[in-house]
Amino acid sequence: MSRRWTHEECLERFRAGDRRAVGRVISLIEQHDPEGTALLGELYRSDARAHRIGITGAPGVGKSTLVNVFAKRLSDEGQKLGVIAIDPSSPFTKGAFLGDRVRMQDVKGGNVFIRSMATRGSVGGLSWPAWLTAAVFEAFGLNKVIIETVGVGQVDVDVQELVDTTCVVLQPEAGDSMQFLKAGLMEIAHIYIVNKADKPGTRAMIADLMEFVKMHPEVEGGWTPPIVETVANEGQGLDELTEALDAHRKHLEKTEALEEKRRLRIRRQLKARFFHRAKIDLWNRPSGTEQVEAAVDRIQQGANPLEEADRLARQLLAGERSASEVEE
Ligand SMILES: Nc1nc2c(ncn2[C@@H]2O[C@H](COP(=O)(O)OP(=O)(O)O)[C@@H](O)[C@H]2O)c(=O)[nH]1
Ligand SMILES: [Mg+2]
After folding, report:
1. Burial class of residue 115, CB neighbours in 10 A (0-12, 13-18, 19+)
2. Among 96, 157, 159, 171, who pairs with 61 as Cys (CB 3.0-4.6 Å)?
3. SS3 state at 166
4. Which helix H or strand E contains 239, and what residues bound it?
5. Model confidence over 206-243: pLDDT tens digits?
């Protein structure tokens, strides 16, 4: 890496469209470098608008393959897009994601920005760093931001909080094709993607899905989720996917749900960040250690742990006063 750019240089390069500046800004933010905060302060644009798309679904259904061909396709059309891959298992997003990253080399280049992030140990929950990264992408003028989750657990449900449009990817299953209903993913889908539509069982899967959609017709005022068939490794179904995404985006604009979503998103992020910050600050107050240890002593000597915990919280919230001053 070259010598560290000055604040002004970094800003200038970012504004001039130098792709290296994007990575630099995101890294500084991720490292909690004060320079990252300062840069974001100048670059953040609340009026920048990318279509934020979530791609979620069980491991192996073909999410990365799909994101890869879709990103390539959009990039070939001249669109500028960012891909954020969330990997909940690895603190350094090595391991599971490496294969994806290698595949992503096909599209990495002029118009596509790729960032992977871990969820473990992240500050303020899973979504804070992803949200900031998306904001940086938007400020850089990207018009689409795709967030792919790895497909394990809560992360996949949480992704909906970060995006305008959530796509749930499924694959034809032999036998129990409605198993996916239990995953908690079905309630969040704006678009169903049945990938691996080259495999047997596709028709049955789609029939089941249509039945499901009929029973749960609306996820969000007046929107019925379409079902898109794809064969990701052959690049099939991308036109239909593009159409479905654009239709949902238009729907959000028409119903003014987009602004509402953005507002909700900001509030959620603020809350997550606040809880994180407030907890650390309270716990680390100068008088805190003494109060914490005193509470531990009392519990060890038989005091009611519930009462002690609540009292400690009140003491810490009350600030610098000593334990005796807030004694009830
Ligand atoms: N037959 C078939 N295989 C596919 C299709 N899309 C992806 N795959 C394969 O499915 C496997 C898992 O794909 P991957 O994109 O890593 O899934 P992810 O875990 O959801 O990201 C890979 O071996 C892909 O080549 C498809 O449309 N048809
Ligand atoms: Mg993947």
Report:
1. buried
2. 171
3. strand
4. helix 238-254
5. 998 898 888 876 667 789 999 999 999 999 999 999 99
Coil/strand/helix, residue 231: strand
Q: Is there a domain that residue 276 lies in?
A: no
d(CA 245, CA 66): 14
Contact 236, 203 (CB under 8 A): no
Measuring from atom 17 of ligand 1, which residue has the nearest CA? 62
pLDDT tens per residue across span 192-210? 999 999 999 899 989 988 9
What is the pTM assigned to this prediction? 0.84
My answer on whether 123 and 33 are in the same domain is: no
User: According to the model, what pLDDT value does residue 52 have?
Assistant: 95
- What pLDDT score was predicted for residue 3? 65
Cα-to-centroid distance, 246 and ligand 1 (Å): 24
Q: Is 203 a domain residue?
A: yes
Q: Which is it for the CA torsion 257, 260, 265, 268, positive or negative?
A: negative
Q: Which of 64, 65, 155 to mutate to test the pocket of ligand 1 (most atoms within 8 A of CB)?
A: 65
Q: What does each C-alpha distance from 181 to 35, 176, 178, 306, 309 come to in angstroms?
A: 45, 10, 6, 39, 40
If one residue of 147, 194, 233, 238 were mutated to test the ligand 1 pocket, choosing by the most ligand atoms within 8 A of its CB, it would be 233
Do 163 and 292 belong together in one domain?
Answer: no
Residue 318: give the domain boundaries. Answer: 285-326
Token pair belonging to 40? 């974001």
